[in-house]
Each structure stands twice: as structure tokens, then as C-alpha cells.
Amino acid sequence: MRLSLLTRWSALVGTLLTLGIVIALALTHYLPGQPLLVLAVCLLCVVPLAVITIRSQLAPMLSLYRALAGTVTSYRDGDFSFSLHWPQNDELCDLVAAHNALGEVLRAQRLDLVQRELLLDTMVQNTPVAMLLVADNGPVVYANLAARHLLGQGRKLEGHRLDELLAQASAALAEAVARGGDGLFTTGEGEQEEVFHLARRRFNLNGRRHELLLLRQLTSELRRQEVQTWKKVIRVISHELNNSLAPLASLAHSGAELVRRGQTERLPQILATIGERTRHLESFILGYARFAKLPTPRLEAQQWAGFVARLAEQVPFRVDGPLPEEPCAFDAAQLEQALLNLLKNAHESGSSPEAVSLDIRRVPDLVRIDVLDRGPGMSEAVLTNALVPFYSTKRSGTGLGLALAREIAEAHGGRITLANREGGGLAVTLFLPSELLTA
């Protein structure tokens, strides 16, 4: 651009100088001895021509600069529909071509962005998850179709305050939102009962605090899972009953036949086997009963030394490290049942008996209980499902041992985790929260 301007200005100055010299020579011939008059006439002739020529040369450039400034302003406002034209083949033409190419790129990107926004809006509007975006506990900024049907009978919710909408919604929903955090809640009764999951996230948007609420209906999924669970329960119970009742019927028939023949010397063995199978069946049924009717824990202060000693009388294990001296408040019967299940699982894992150990220690605001073994551990799939009720990898397993331990831990306000150990084996960890610790 500088080269173009320099060339034009050089040509213009040369032309004006030539014109001034010609006029001066002509006037000197007609007005000899009057240089001032000649200079004045030259200026009167050349200056207007110079001004007119300069303005005619600068006008297209100034117009182009104004057009460039206007298109840049349009780009800033999101309008990329403008393009420029420069008739001459110089540096300004290259500048205009680059500017137009930038506009084409911005137009293509804007079109792609619009299509993406349209796709995203279509997905968000038609998702079955109700979505509400609320600005700093104030008005609703955005609500999709599911949220409109859930809270406004199909009407638009934008601009309405969340507390006003909740005042017209079900009491369970209002209570779940007021409670804060994520969680499940149920609306309706009987056949009209619906289960929802509420998830909420807070973030800053345009310098203001916003909260996103997601309401997902889980009724159909839970009912499907419930049916699948009941089918599995029935299969497990039927399998266990058949495994127990068939031998019992056979033994009873054999005993009756021996009595008929007067050969009673084998009756004690048959009756002992019947008693063993009956106790096994009773234990199986009691396991289901405990899982289905786990009572609320009765928290009492317990000393760890006495509790672990009672536990060691029922199943062998090694105690790693010193036991905590501070007592802890928990339901001794329930926690004993949970640890018995975990310790028996450790022995049944294939671990050597001396490698099964129990480690109880204080960590910040928690009591941590580890049940450790040196068996083969668990695969990722088994780790994911091991705590699910009725899930078992054993042919004769009920899938209740770990599930019951989880129920007991959570009933105490704690949690349970499973992890493979370095060098082989499994670590099952129970955590009791700080509220259960006695002073």
C-alpha cells in the first residue's frame, strides 16, 4: 500500500511541477521583468488544479478505508455478509482480497456454529430430562420442554422465579430442592407414584452465579430393574430350595425304606444329614430375611479389643497393628455380621488362612476397618457389581454377603469400598463416620 501511494504521489507531483514550469515559461515570455506576477499567476493556476487532482485521487482510497472500518464493525456485531471491491491491481487490491477471504471464513464458521447450536438446542429441548437454569436464586433463565410440562403444564417458565414455580409443584419436589444437593424423591401414591432423581450444579455465567437443576424420571427404569431383581431372587431361591429339598426327600425315602426293612443302624447318619441340610436352608432363608428387614442400628459404645475377641471366636484371622484405644459407638451385632461375611469371603477367595487379616485404625474423623486377603482379587466387572444385591460369581452363592455389609455400613452412616491389592488379593474397607465416635 505504501508503494502504491508513493507511486501515485510521485506521478502527481511530477505532473504538477511540469505544468507549473510550462505556465511559468509561457508567462515569462509575455510578461518579462515581472517575476512576482508570473509566480502569482502560476500559483493561481496550479493550486486549484492540485487540490482538485489530490481530492480526486484520495477520494476512492478514503471511501475504501471507510468501507473497511464499516465491515470490521459489522464483523464485531456478528454480521459477515459484506464484501468489498477495489478495481485497481495494486496493494490495496491485495488488502481487499484478504479482507474478503477473512469474511468468507467467518461466514462459514458462523454457519457451522449456528447449525451446532440448532442441533444442541434440539437435543436439549427434546431430552426427557427436565432442565432448569436459574440465575442466582432468582428468575428462571432457561427451561426445556420437559421442565415446562413438569412445572408449568407446557407454559414457558423463563422469567418466573423458582420459588413461585415450586409453590405450585408437588411438596416432594419442593422439599427435595430445599434440601439441597443431589438425591431421589417420590411423588404421588399407589399407581400414580413417580420416582425422580434431582441433580444440581452451580457455576458462573456472564459474571453471575447460576444453578442448573436436572430432574430425571426413573420410575420405568426402576420398575424394570425391580422386575429383573425379583426374577433373579426367585431363581436363586428356587435353585437353593431345589438343592435342599431334593436331597431331603431322597434321604427321607431312604430312611423310611430302612425302617421298613428293620435296618435302623444307618438312621442316625441319615437324620444327621437331614438336620445339616435343614440348618443350611434355615441359614439361607435367614440371610434373605436379614437383608430385607435390616433394623435401625442401636448405637452403643464398644471397646475394640472385646469386639475383635468375640469375632475371632467365630472365624480365624490375623490382627494387623494395634487396635484403637478409643471406643466407638456402633451396633455390635450388625457390624459383627458384616465383618463375619467379609472374613468368610476372604477365606473362600482361595487365600491362605494365615494371610486373612483385619486392620482397624483411626484416620482423620473416621474409623477405618480393612479386611485383607491374598486371593486372586477381582476383575473390573466383578468389582463394579460385587456390592449389587444377588450378584455372585459362586455357583452356590446368594449374592447377599457384600450387599448386606454395604447395607449395614450405610445404615451406620458410613460406606464400603473394594480394591485389589498390590501383589494380589483384595482389600474390603469399611468407614465409620466421625459422628459415631465417642469422646
TrEMBL record:
Residue ranges annotated for the Histidine kinase domain, each copy included: 236-436
InterPro entries linked to this entry: 2C_sensor_his_kinase, HATPase_C_sf, HATPase_dom, His_kinase_dom, HisK_dim/P_sf, PAS, PAS-like_dom_sf, Sig_transdc_His_kin-like_C
EC main group: transferase
EC number: 2.7.13.3
Annotated Gene3D superfamilies: Histidine kinase-like ATPase, C-terminal domain, PAS domain
Molecular function as annotated in GO: ATP binding; phosphorelay sensor kinase activity
Pfam families associated with the record: HATPase_c (PF02518), PAS_8 (PF13188)
Catalyzed reaction equations: ATP + protein L-histidine = ADP + protein N-phospho-L-histidine
Membrane-spanning ranges: 12-30, 36-54
Originating organism: Pseudoduganella buxea
Record's protein name: histidine kinase
Protein's UniProt keywords contain Plastid: no
PANTHER family in alphabetical order: SENSOR PROTEIN CREC, SENSOR PROTEIN RSTB
Assigned keywords, A-Z: ATP-binding, Kinase, Membrane, Nucleotide-binding, Transferase, Transmembrane, Transmembrane helix
